[in-house]
Amino acid sequence: xxxxxxxxxxxxxxxxxxxxxxxxxxxxxxxxxxxxxxxxxxxxxxxxxxxxxxxxxxxxxxxxxxxxxxxxxxxxxxxxxxxxxxxxxxxxxxxxxxxxxxxxxxxxxxxxxx
Length: 114
Prior knowledge:
Blueprint: H1 3-31, H2 35-62, H3 72-85, H4 91-107
Helix pairs in contact: 1-2, 1-3, 3-4
């Protein structure tokens, strides 16, 4: 496999991961009890949308479509976030669970999620 093909595969994985986050972050923001935490999730969503746009630009430069790969690792991390939203915790304990799941978004991002 040519180096360019490896790069395109990695970019597709990142594109998938970022798009999955675009769908997941509003759910976390809505579920958060603390207003500052809601604001942080919203800010992260805006940043992630910007990353999706930059990745689209990279695909245009390469003359490639950004589809074809699905980041299974990010899917698993997002499932953990969904599980945290379903917990029967209250107040800070609930938000702490969401924060723990959200921290894995960055720790298990496209570079680590494969």
